[in-house]
Amino acid sequence: MRAAYLLTVHTGEYMRSKYLRICALLLLLCISAASHADLHKWVDANGVTHYSENVPSGQESTTVKTPVAPPPDSANSSALKDEVEKANAMVEAHKRKVAAEEQQEAANRKAAADKNARCGYEKNRLQGLQQANRVATFGPDGQKVYVSDAERQHMIDQAQNAVSNYCN
Question: Which residue has better confidence, 5 or 59?
Answer without folding.
Answer: 59
